[in-house]
């Protein structure tokens, strides 16, 4: 296969087997396997408390796994952390910069710590501020930044030296749509230059938009893995929605659709919108043809691709958005 | 989500992420010296942006000295001038030792915010993160010492050891404080909150400073307490500092401070770094 050859030529950015992290009685991460080819974006999708941050902290050498093993660009996580550190970068879930310092002071500090001389560090910091749309806020303390600006300076600090592997832990949680788009733009640009990105998100659309492959994680376990379309395929083609002209046709139409698609039909409160899961598109055509034969007037119809929300619902039996909201822990 | 602050409409300046990609060759990781200097620079910038943190090194010494001289001084030794001769070196030792615990508090704050995680994923010699901060703390201790000695001189303190003796005494205090700070860095990593860290620090510092020869002559104490006072590191430091300031210090007294300092560093610096690396 095409990807296979490409993987062999370029190697893997991350390869993890059976990673486990236990906190007290809780198995925060419970046997996670991961294979991330170089130059791709890997999405780690799961609700709060699923184990996303814990996995990232293990892979970025911050905490040691209780079991399992992993290698980053072929370097063993346990024994070669120094080699790993020089190739990775982490943007944590909570801003990992000094909020009392200004934007430029933070970037100069990190640049110096990456090995630039003070003069080079200043130049690099200015470049980054410009690139991230922060030059006007350069001399303002970071604690006075908005959420989107904070995220941007945080990511900027992570790419002072372009890392080979960038971990982004919920980079857009809490951001307004415009700031979120800016972060997406940044991620895409980085990937364009060859950086591998592992990003976690609770947002299904985000994983869909950015990630080449997605792992769905819940209670410390990966419950599904694949490309966005593979995941979607695992729950069928999508949802057929039909809008009737006359509410009086409702029960007749519902029984035709139910029979053809072999799935329960949902009737919305307006009485004219029917929807049902479809396994493949050919039977959708048949169902619509049948409705026509029976002279049932249709004002509109659509075959919606399933959302990742539906995927999540199918996989876990619970909706991702029903999960309890953010609670901080140290 | 907090309120968005956008004083000058900079919130949504255009991003040009492609321009952010570092050109040229990636730099070699910094030397231990270079990263230590970068961290020291950060600590200096923090003083600039959060000047309140200088309260403890400026206001404390003044309050302590005035309080002990005028409130208790007369009562214990009969006259304030005489008492100051005896008291000032001790109060200086006490004040600076107490200030050292702020080192732990700063580190504890770094840990609770995310920046600690960032430092730990950088390709640097990790102890430099702490040594850089401690070096700037040494500057703060010098400032505290200068303020206290300056005020003491105004109030009638006359060190017989002269300028040389005073400078020597301050250097001994700085060596001790730098070494003693490693206890607080270790504690700062272990303790969950700033509050509990403060508690523990007070529990350690108060008995150490009060059950010492700072305020009283140990020969007036019951013998079981004398034993503790004599091996108390604060007493050892106070003895050496008094000796140097009064011009009758001995190498042996200074030697003991060096030994005690070395013990602190040898035990608590590696312990701190072990905890720093392993912190979950
Ligand atoms: N340092 C810790 N101590 C104790 N429990 C922890 C710690 N870190 C994470 N956990 C627990 O492990 C589980 C997974 O957490 P986390 O990895 O942060 O999830 P996510 O990032 O997906 O929201 C949660 O139940 C959390 O409470
Ligand atoms: Mg998390």
Summarize the structure in words.
The complex is a heterodimer of chains A (330) and B (280). With 330 residues, chain A is of the alpha/beta class. Chain A folds into two domains: 2-233, P-loop containing nucleotide triphosphate hydrolases (Rossmann fold, 3-Layer(aba) Sandwich), CATH 3.40.50; 237-305, Alpha-Beta Plaits. Chain A has helices at residues 2-10, 52-59, 81-85, 103-113, 118-131, 147-158, 177-192, 204-210, 228-233, 250-261, 281-293, 308-316; strands at residues 12-23, 26-37, 41-45, 67-72, 75-76, 88-91, 165-169, 196-201, 213-218, 221-226, 238-244, 266-267, 273-278, 298-304. Chain B has helices spanning 32-49, 55-77, 80-99, 101-112, 115-120, 127-155, 162-190, 194-210, 223-231, 233-246, 251-278. The chains are: A alpha/beta (330), B mainly alpha (280). Chains A and B meet through strand 6, helix 4, helix 5, helix 6 and helix 7 of A and helix 1 and helix 5 of B. The complex binds adenosine-5'-diphosphate (ADP) and magnesium ion (MG). Residues 23, 26, 28, 46, 48-54, 329 of chain A line the site of adenosine-5'-diphosphate.
């Amino acid at each position: 296969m095409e990807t296979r050859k490409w993987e062999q030529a370029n190697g893997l950015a991350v390869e993890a087997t059976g990673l486990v992290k236990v906190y007290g009685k809780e198995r925060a991460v419970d046997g996670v396997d991961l294979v991330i080819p170089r130059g791709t974006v890997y999405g780690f999708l799961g609700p709060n408390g699923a184990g996303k941050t814990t996995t990232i902290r293990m892979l970025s050498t911050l905490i040691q796994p209780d079991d399992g093993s992993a290698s980053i660009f072929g370097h063993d996580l346990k024994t070669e952390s120094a080699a790993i550190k020089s190739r990775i970068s982490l943007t944590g879930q909570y801003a990992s910069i000094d909020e009392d310092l200004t934007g430029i002071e933070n970037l100069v500090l990190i640049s110096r710590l990456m090995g630039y001389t003070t003069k080079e560090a200043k130049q690099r910091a200015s470049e980054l501020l410009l690139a991230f749309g922060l030059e006007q806020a350069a001399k303002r303390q970071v604690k006075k930044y908005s959420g989107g600006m904070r995220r941007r300076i945080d990511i900027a600090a992570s790419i002072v030296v372009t890392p080979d592997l960038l971990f982004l832990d919920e980079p857009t949680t809490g951001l307004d749509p415009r700031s979120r788009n800016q972060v997406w733009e940044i991620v895409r640009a980085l990937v364009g230059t060859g950086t591998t990105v592992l990003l976690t998100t609770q947002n299904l659309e985000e994983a869909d938009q950015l990630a080449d492959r997605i792992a769905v994680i819940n209670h410390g376990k990966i419950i599904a893995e694949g490309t966005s379309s593979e995941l979607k395929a695992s729950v069928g083609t999508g949802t057929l929605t039909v809008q009737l002209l006359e509410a009086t046709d409702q029960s007749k139409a519902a029984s035709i659709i139910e029979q053809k698609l072999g799935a329960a039909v949902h009737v919305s409160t307006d009485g004219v919108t029917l929807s049902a899961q479809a396994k493949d598109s050919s039977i959708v055509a048949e169902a619509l043809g049948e409705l026509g034969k029976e002279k049932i007037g249709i004002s509109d119809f659509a075959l919606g691709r399933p959302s990742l929300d539906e995927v999540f619902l199918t996989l876990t039996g619970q909706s991702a958005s029903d999960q309890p909201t953010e609670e901080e822990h140290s | 989500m907090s309120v968005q602050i956008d004083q000058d409409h900079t919130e949504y300046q255009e991003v040009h992420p492609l321009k952010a990609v570092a050109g040229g060759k990636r730099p070699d990781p910094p030397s231990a010296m270079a990263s230590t200097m970068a961290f020291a620079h950060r600590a200096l910038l923090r003083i600039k942006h959060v000047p309140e943190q200088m309260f403890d090194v400026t206001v404390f010494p003044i309050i302590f000295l005035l309080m002990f001289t005028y409130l208790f001084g007369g009562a214990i030794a009969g006259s304030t001038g005489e008492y100051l001769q005896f008291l000032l070196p001790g109060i200086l030792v006490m004040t600076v030792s107490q200030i050292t615990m702020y080192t732990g508090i700063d580190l504890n704050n770094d840990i609770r915010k995310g920046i600690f995680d960032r430092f730990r994923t950088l390709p640097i010699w990790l102890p430099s993160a702490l040594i850089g901060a401690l070096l700037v703390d040494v500057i703060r201790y010098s400032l505290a010492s200068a303020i206290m000695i300056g005020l003491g001189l105004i109030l009638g303190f006359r060190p017989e050891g002269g300028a040389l003796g005073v400078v020597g005494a301050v250097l001994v205090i700085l060596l001790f404080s730098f070494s003693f700070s490693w206890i607080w860095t270790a504690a700062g990593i272990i303790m969950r909150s700033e509050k509990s860290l403060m508690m523990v620090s007070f529990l350690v510092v108060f008995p150490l400073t009060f059950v010492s020869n700072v305020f009283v002559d140990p020969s007036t104490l019951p013998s079981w307490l004398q034993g503790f006072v004599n091996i108390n590191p604060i007493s050892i430091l106070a003895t050496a500092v008094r000796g140097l300031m009064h011009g009758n210090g001995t190498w042996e007294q200074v030697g003991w401070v060096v030994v005690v300092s070395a013990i602190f560093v040898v035990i608590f610096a590696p312990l701190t770094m072990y905890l720093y690396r392993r912190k979950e």
